[in-house]
Amino acid sequence: MTPTDAGSEETGVRAAAVPAAAAGRPGGAKFLTGSLMRHVAVMTLTSSIGLLALFVVDFVNLFFISRLGDPALTAGIGFASTLLFLNSSLNIGLMITISALAARRIGMGRAETTRALLGEVLLLGIVLSAIIATIFWTFAPQWVDLMGGSGTAKDAAVSYIRIVAPFGPVTVTGMVCSGLLRAYGDARRAMNTTLAMAIGNAVFDPLLIFGLGWGFVGAAWSTVISIMLMAITGVVPILRHYGGFAMPSRESFAANLTDIRKIMVPAVLTNLATPVGGIIAFRLIAVYGEASVASYAVIGRIIPLAFCLLFSLSGSIGPIIGQNYGAGQLDRVRGTIDRAVIFAAGFTLLIWPLLILGVDTIGWLFDLPTGGMDLIHAFAWVVVPLFFFNGLLFIANASFNNLDRASWSTWTNWGRNTLGVLPLAMLGSQMAGAPGVLIGQAVGGVLFGLGAYWLTRYRVNQLRQL
């Protein structure tokens, strides 16, 4: 079985990129609409399982730490995870890079060039991740100070960062391999990488935290073990089914560097905006005490779990858009984007009442102090329905990255996480305290989500006129 055959068998990628047969027969337009919506749904659902597994890692960590009965430790894991997401921005950016470039080459019939591309992206990722890990380990106390952490919460956050950060190069290996698998449409094996990480965390968290009595430190080492499992699960199918890795040569690297840089730099900068926005919000929340910080940390774990389908939507439609763009099928690019928006709206309407009903359960599950429950209520009633507009931004970013406008993702994401957070969250804080910070962030998401979606439609129309 060739790599392309594997991808087609899993999700029908090849059929999605070459729709002429369907378009030429009676009822073809209806077939295309149904086929495309099904393809978006299948790729999103399978991708969401893997992404959900990745988010479960943080959720499980926070849950078991909350069982230790100290809100300061819950706040500490919130500080640490937000800061470590700065490093995750590099990993996600590199995953987007390999996925976008490889998918386009596959769509153009140049799948044999992806081995060299994988080796080059991976080498870049390991070197950069090692540098970032060194900086994080050295300056962890200063980073936590910047976010407003102090006392036990600060000590816990610093210890967690200094254990997990050095394994950044291992993390980037797993993420890049997952991105290549997704570019081939091999959703099942891409899903398995993050699934392995989640299973590892679910097993080793209780064993190390409670079984061996390592407490908070046990959660950090559990994450390290899970990272290693993810990397192994990503590397093995690349070696077995997709020709392995090609060692970068000077000539090949020079030829590919421009393409890599055009997507990698804006993709990394785009994803870097999210933790920056989180740091700003944490700083504003920290003045209201550890109860509010602990609740905000819980919300930070609930959002990716509750909206995993929206997060995975951008990762799953990226290769579909990239392959159809490479094949010159702009009508299907436009159709993919439209179906993704419908998918996002329907899912948001589904999840909203469930979270309203689950407010008290969330407080009980994480043993949250009474003083922090006002944030949970504001999140469930006000922030959740507005998260649809963040979904628009995710869809737009995936479109920009695959339609030769990756820098637009950078500008819209940074705008959303700076201008869309700081002034509105500060205003909300003055008007309604800690819940106002949440609501201010959500309003910023509405403004930038709508703006990014308009830019997406503009870009597609622009391409159709060429």
UniProtKB/TrEMBL annotation:
Its main location: membrane. It is a multi-pass membrane protein. GO terms for cellular component: plasma membrane. The lineage of its organism: Bacteria, Pseudomonadati, Pseudomonadota, Alphaproteobacteria, Sphingomonadales. The chain crosses the membrane at residues 40-65, 77-101, 121-140, 160-181, 193-214, 220-242, 263-286, 298-321, 341-366, 378-402, 414-432, 438-456. This is MATE family efflux transporter. Keywords: Cell membrane, Membrane, Transmembrane, Transmembrane helix, Transport. GO terms for molecular function: antiporter activity; xenobiotic transmembrane transporter activity. Signal peptide: none annotated. It is found in: Cell inner membrane. InterPro entries: MATE_fam (IPR002528), MdtK-like (IPR048279), Membrane_Transporter-Flippase (IPR052031). It comes from the Bacteria. It comes from Sphingomonas ursincola.
